[in-house]
Amino acid sequence: MAERSQTAPEAGSDMGNDDAIGGNVSKYVVLPTGYCGQPKKGHLIFDACFESGNLGRVDQVSEFEYDLFIRPDTCNPRFRVWFNFTVENVKESQRVIFNIVNFSKTKSLYRDGMAPMVKSTSRPKWQRLPPKNVYYYRCPDHRKNYVMSFAFCFDREEDIYQFAYCYPYTYTRFQHYLDSLQKRNMDYFFREQLGQSVQQRQLDLLTITSPDNLREGAEQKVVFITGRVHPGETPSSFVCQGIIDFLISQHPIARVLREHLVFKIAPMLNPDGVYLGNYRCSLMGFDLNRHWLDPSPWAHPTLHGVKQLIIQMYNDPKTSLEFYIDIHAHSTMMNGFMYGNIFEDEERFQRQAVFPKLLCQNAEDFSYSSTSFNRDAVKAGTGRRFLGGLLDHTSYCYTLEVSFYSYIIGGTTAAVPYTEEAYMKLGRNVARTFLDYYRLNPMVEKVAIPMPRLREKELTSRRRKGKPPSYKHSLLRGPASNHPNGKGDKKSSVNHKDPSNSF
């Protein structure tokens, strides 16, 4: 049997199979029963030994069909949702059926049309498989567990194909992104290392604000944002990047927000889990979003570091911690929506509803009707619940959820699948909503860059030649354009084929 990677083994599991899955498959060659010799084209090679990879086992059921087992989160057999693996050594026009057989959840957006992601070396843009090729059902062959099966046809022999639960967003990608921002030397963007994970990965903290707000003795209104406490919830990182990209831009709204607020952002609370390809847990098998009450500095160091900072800010009389937003992705709901807290004070409860109502007006994919406020006992250790109890009545704590799959625009019933760009657009709209919340709209026109005036002689000359005036500086177009560069929400300039025809 092919070699498997040596990640931490799991003790005891209810995977519906007697064999424990102790790591990811590593260049695992599937050969027909009784075959001897070197692998031929069409003898598939599976691999998940790469960053954020996850595939624990492959069983060939027939010539065309394969059962695939998700590797459970490290040190915790309960969670099996995220998958991310490659297939190579394919034959042109080779048709297969892949069955993901050991999901730990029964409810899933696969029932509503969600499909796995795919890309290949010659087509590096992630695309969703056609929903008509995906089936989600209870299977008697696997102890009546739910199985997600999808049919696929390989079309290019030299390509390596990659399949994933959702758009991956790795720790390395995140580090490269922050490195690129740091090199721009923006005086309103600050990056620091708040701590390290168990495996010594960085816990990055970003501060985005006008330098005037950081001078000694200055009063600060702080918005604190966190993401990726659950490592498999990759849409969280795209939303968070959308927030960051907008706040550091030269858009007039971003400039006003930087003047009036201090944004503290810890975009990746669980870097080890992200790197390892876990769905919900850290390296040691902890769901970090249940340990806010008493995080251990050695078992939950990233959570401990963020909590200490928040308490420090809370105790600073010059700092008003106004918002805490923790970004997640949801595996059974559509749209973006929020969870908030319940308070005995009716006025405080009503005030808490203001921000999600405003966000609903700004973002077509955000649903206020799906937003809910609760005090469930099972959520007691979450950031939202713990900080909602710690902070005073001037602070608002939310969990921002976004669907792994799609959103439904008001007045329609058609599901619109999320793209990486759509997730980032939601992030930009979250950032813009603070302008409405703090009623800073009148300030936007004051910071807009005035139109450069041409010399009268040059202007007259251009009019005579029938040419429009040219300006050396591009104009920012105000609220009508919410792209960080003031260019609107345009798709990538790279041409890609229709996803339904690409594979």
TrEMBL record:
EC assignment: 3.4.17.24
The terms under GO molecular function for this entry are: metallocarboxypeptidase activity; zinc ion binding
Q: Which SMART domains match?
A: Zn_pept
Q: Does the keyword Calcium apply?
A: no
Identify the keywords attached in UniProt to this record, alphabetized.
Carboxypeptidase, Cell projection, Cytoplasm, Cytoskeleton, Golgi apparatus, Hydrolase, Metal-binding, Metalloprotease, Protease, Zinc
* Residue ranges of every copy of the Peptidase M14 domain listed in the record: 167-438
Essential cofactor(s): Zn(2+)
Q: What Gene3D superfamilies does the database record attribute to this sequence?
A: 2.60.40.3120, Zn peptidases
Q: Which GO terms describe its cellular component?
A: centriole; cytosol; Golgi apparatus
Decide whether keyword Cytoplasm is in the record. yes
| InterPro entries xref list | Cytosolic_carboxypeptidase, Pepdidase_M14_N, Peptidase_M14
Task: Specify the domain of life of the species encoding this protein.
Answer: Eukaryota
Q: Where is the composition biased (Basic and acidic residues)?
A: 486-503
Record-linked PROSITE patterns: PEPTIDASE_M14
GO process annotations (BP): proteolysis
Where is the protein localized? Cytoplasm, Cytoskeleton, Cilium basal body; Cytoplasm, Cytoskeleton, Microtubule organizing center, Centrosome, Centriole; Cytoplasm, Cytosol; Golgi apparatus
Instruction: Provide the catalytic activity annotation.
Output: C-terminal L-alpha-aminoacyl-L-glutamyl-L-glutamyl-[tubulin] + H2O = C-terminal L-alpha-aminoacyl-L-glutamyl-[tubulin] + L-glutamate; (L-glutamyl)(n+1)-gamma-L-glutamyl-L-glutamyl-[protein] + H2O = (L-glutamyl)(n)-gamma-L-glutamyl-L-glutamyl-[protein] + L-glutamate
What do we know about how this protein assembles, alone or with others?
Interacts with MYLK.
Tell me, in a sentence or two, what this protein's role is. Answer: Metallocarboxypeptidase that mediates protein deglutamylation of tubulin and non-tubulin target proteins. Catalyzes the removal of polyglutamate side chains present on the gamma-carboxyl group of glutamate residues within the C-terminal tail of tubulin protein. Specifically cleaves tubulin long-side-chains, while it is not able to remove the branching point glutamate. Also catalyzes the removal of polyglutamate residues from the carboxy-terminus of non-tubulin proteins such as MYLK.
Which family is annotated? Belongs to the peptidase M14 family.
Protein name (record): Cytosolic carboxypeptidase 6
Q: Which organism is it from?
A: Bison bison bison
Lineage from the top down? Eukaryota, Metazoa, Chordata, Craniata, Vertebrata
